[in-house]
Each structure stands twice: as structure tokens, then as C-alpha cells.
Write a sequence for this structure.
């Protein structure tokens, strides 16, 4: 990443000094040669080295003194136990701090390496300790994860999907955006912690996509079905498949389709003697989310529970395989008193498989359903919000003595006071 950054920043008009602990890498740069094999990199390094825009040194103090911004892109490998090894990051922070002791002008340190939340904070502390300077007065820290891929690194550098800037310093944020002038991107300013974590979420999702597609492919091969034709069709669906749909943290999935179809698909794979750990883990993960919601309710030790929304999602009266019905059933089994509000569920009008399902799970449902929202909340100690309906939004303010557990992100912000979100 260091070599690509040198080349691309120079192409965008900056004068860039590379610093590496490996002297051979610095020597190569000072001969106008790239340190990696990568499309277009040789020409860029040579061109801008000849123009005097690129050089390298081993002494980070000199580099810090001569520049406004330090871009940290040292390696962050895994330790044998799986933990992230941040030694190079902290060593670099120490060097920057020691150099800043002798510098009067404002200096920005940008962490581009992939690091877990908390790292930028510690980098700030190390720089402050070693420089005697004050963060956000004399220097600032910016988290700016890099999204490029090897093999198309130069192209990716100039066309990132987004550019995430995580900082608590407006001036540094502006400077970093200016540094990327000429790059085709949208700048997204956020907290340092989100900026640090997003790269892990991205890469884990990318890895999940690869493993999912491979498991689907393995099943296709067994069935003599063309996996690439199938996945090409799959990728044409930008409404549900390749979209933000289904990617909001919240409660478990349910209903008459997803659980049944996931179960049938993974069982078919098993019948072909295929190992499909990703497919097999989906229902387990879903059960875990139900357990999590149950534990949150039980933790409160309330005996009077209100449930706002019973069907498997809002806007329907379908109760089949609703995870909320399961939650209600367990709470009843534990001796809780339940009051349920769902304006789509009219017990006397339920019919067919829907009625059969609820008769089996909560046979006396009609005694629990109340069509007055305020009555349900008023008489409850804990209220579980399971549908994202506007009428539920301000209930926690209206009823300060009731504890609210939100499974669907009914409002902005995180858990506080009498309001608790399942994963926020
Ligand atoms: N390779 C990628 O495609 C890619 C993409 C995005 C993000 N990243 C992240 O960027 C970081 C760097 O990745 P990379 O592939 O360029 O790693 P790399 O191992 O190729 O390069 C890291 C460089 O840092 C140097 N270094 C180590 N300690 C140093 C120190 N104290 N001072 C100066 N230099 C030091 C090493 O000698 C090495 O040349 C990692 O956090 C990685 O996860 C990599």
C-alpha cells in the first residue's frame, strides 16, 4: 500500500517521501523503481521519481519534519493466536511523536493500515507522550482505511467505492479531503471507531460472499447445474440480493419462507454428502439472535411484558414461524403476563395454516391481544418493540418508567436510559 500511495499521491501533484524500515525498499524507490509487482506502478514511480516528486528515506524524523501529513500504511499481520499485531503501528507512532517534538507546525497522522477500534486513540496517546504536544491543538489523527485490492491497486486507488474519513478534527478532515483532490470518490465523514471497523466488516462480508458462492457452486456441481449461469442470474437481482436490503442489524428472520427454504437447501447439500459450513451456520445464527432477545427481556426480571408487533414482519398478519411468536411462547412458559398489540392481527379473522400455527403455539392468543396501544404500555414493566411503526417511536419518552427493548431500530441513537436496542 505504501508503494501504491507514493505513486498515486505523486500523480495527483503531491511531493511524497516514503519511509520503510527495510532499506532495500527505500533504495529501490530512490532508483525510480517500484517495490511491488502491480499493474501501472512501474511507470508511475519512474515518471514521478524523475520529476523529483518521489523519494524515500529510512529516517522518519526527517520525513515528518519535511511534510504536513504522515500516512501510516505499515503491516498489521495476525499473531499466531489470531490477534492483530499492531507493533509496527505503535512503533511508527512513537517515531512520529519523537519527531514532532522538534516541529512547530500542525501535523496530521493518517492511519491507512487496517486496525481495530481503539488503535487510533492509542496512536494519539503515543504521539502525545513522545512529543509533549497536545492532540487537536498541535496534531490530529485521522482514520482513513484503504479499500484497494492487489492486482488492480492503482485503478482502485483512483476509484475507491467511498473514502471514509474518521476523525474528531475538522481541519484535519478538510486537509485529507484536499489531499485526495482529483480522485473519483464520495467522502464519508464518520467517527474514528466506525472508520476503523468498516474495513473488517467489508472484508468479512467479501469473504462470506466467496464462501457462500463456493458452497452454492458445490451443490450445483452435484446436481449437474451450471453454477455460473445460476449466480449470474442471482447477481441480476439488485432489489434483494445485491442491495442494502436485509443488511440492517436487528432481530431474527422468520416467516413461512426463509426458515423453511434455508433448511431445505442445507439439508439437500447434506444429502449429497457436502460439507457446507456457511449454509449450516445460518439457522444457528438466527436462533442465537432469538436467544439474545429473550435474554434481554429476562434480564430485566419484569413479569408484565408488552409486545408491540406479533407477525413475522410489519404490514402482514402472517404469524407462521414468526420469531416473535416464539419469544412470546417462551415468556408465557416462564410465567410472564403478556399483552400484545398488533393492529394487523385480528384473531377472529385468522384462518388456514396461519390459524393452525398460532393455535398450536399460543392457543389463547385472543386473551392476550389488546387493540389499545397505550393500555398495553401502561400495564407493562417491559415493552418489546418488534415492528418499525411510527406510533412506537416516542413511547419511551412518554412512559419513562417502562423499559423498552427495541428489536427493529425504531429511532436514531444507541441504548440509553429506559431504551435498549438489540444490537445498537
Ligand atoms: N495489500 C492490500 O491490498 C491492502 C489493501 C488495503 C489495506 N491494506 C492494509 O494496509 C496495511 C499494509 O498492507 P501491505 O499489504 O502494504 O503490507 P506490506 O507488508 O506489504 O507492507 C508494510 C510495510 O511496512 C513496513 N514497516 C513495518 N514496520 C515499519 C515501521 N515501523 N516503519 C516503517 N515501515 C515499516 C514493512 O517493512 C513493509 O514494507 C495492512 O494493515 C493491510 O491490512 C492492505
Amino acid at each position: 500500500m505504501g508503494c501504491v500511495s507514493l505513486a498515486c499521491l505523486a500523480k495527483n501533484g503531491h511531493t511524497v517521501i516514503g519511509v520503510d524500515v527495510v532499506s532495500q525498499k527505500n533504495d529501490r524507490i530512490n532508483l525510480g523503481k517500484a517495490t511491488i509487482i502491480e499493474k501501472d506502478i512501474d511507470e508511475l514511480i519512474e515518471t514521478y521519481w524523475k520529476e523529483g516528486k518521489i523519494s524515500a528515506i529510512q529516517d522518519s524524523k526527517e520525513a515528518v519534519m519535511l511534510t504536513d501529513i504522515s500516512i501510516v500504511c505499515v503491516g498489521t499481520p495476525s499473531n499466531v493466536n489470531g490477534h492483530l499485531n499492531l507493533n509496527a503501528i505503535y512503533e511508527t507512532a512513537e517515531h512520529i511523536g519523537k519527531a514532532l517534538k522538534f516541529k512547530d507546525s500542525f501535523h496530521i497522522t493518517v492511519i491507512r493500515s487496517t486496525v481495530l477500534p481503539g488503535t487510533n486513540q492509542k496512536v494519539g496517546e503515543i504521539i502525545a507522550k513522545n512529543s509533549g504536544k497536545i492532540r487537536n491543538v498541535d496534531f490530529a489523527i485521522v482514520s482513513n482505511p484503504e479499500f484497494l485490492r492487489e492486482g488492480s491497486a492503482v485503478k482502485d486507488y483512483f476509484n475507491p467505492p467511498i473514502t471514509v474519513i474518521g476523525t474528531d478534527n475538522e481541519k484535519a478532515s478538510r486537509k485529507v479531503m484536499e489531499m485526495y483532490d482529483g480522485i473519483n470518490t464520495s467522502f464519508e465523514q464518520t467517527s474514528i471507531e466506525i472508520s476503523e471497523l468498516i474495513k473488517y466488516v467489508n472484508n468479512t462480508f467479501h469473504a462470506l460472499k466467496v464462501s457462500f458462492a463456493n458452497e452454492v457452486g458445490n451443490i450445483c456441481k452435484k446436481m449437474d447445474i451450471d453454477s455460473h449461469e445460476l449466480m449470474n442470474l442471482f447477481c441480476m437481482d439488485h432489489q434483494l440480493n445485491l442491495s442494502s436490503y436485509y443488511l440492517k442489524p436487528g432481530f431474527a428472520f422468520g416467516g413461512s419462507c426463509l426458515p423453511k427454504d434455508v433448511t431445505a437447501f442445507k439439508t439437500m447439500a447434506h444429502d449429497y454428502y457436502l460439507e457446507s459450513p456457511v449454509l449450516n451456520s445460518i439457522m444457528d445464527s438466527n436462533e442465537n439472535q432469538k436467544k439474545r432477545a429473550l435474554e434481554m427481556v429476562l434480564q430485566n426480571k419484569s413479569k408484565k411484558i408488552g409486545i408491540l408487533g406479533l407477525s413475522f414482519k410489519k404490514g402482514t398478519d402472517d404469524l407462521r414461524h414468526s420469531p416473535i411468536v416464539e419469544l412470546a411462547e417462551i415468556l408465557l412458559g416462564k410465567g410472564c403476563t403478556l399483552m400484545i398489540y398488533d393492529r394487523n392481527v385480528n384473531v377472529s379473522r385468522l384462518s388456514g395454516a396461519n390459524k393452525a400455527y398460532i393455535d398450536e403455539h399460543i392457543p389463547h392468543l385472543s386473551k392476550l391481544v389488546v387493540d389499545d396501544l397505550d393500555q398495553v404500555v401502561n400495564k407493562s414493566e417491559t415493552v418489546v418493540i418488534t415492528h418499525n411503526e411510527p406510533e412506537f417511536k416516542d413511547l419511551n419518552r412518554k412512559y419513562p418508567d417502562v423499559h423498552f427493548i427495541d428489536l427493529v431500530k425504531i429511532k436514531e441513537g444507541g441504548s440509553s436510559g429506559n431504551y435498549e436496542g438489540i444490537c445498537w
The longest strand covers residues 107-111. Residues 1-2, 19-22, 25, 73-76, 88, 91-92, 113-114, 146, 148-150 surround nicotinamide-adenine-dinucleotide (CB under 6 Å). Residues 192-223 form the longest helix (32 residues).
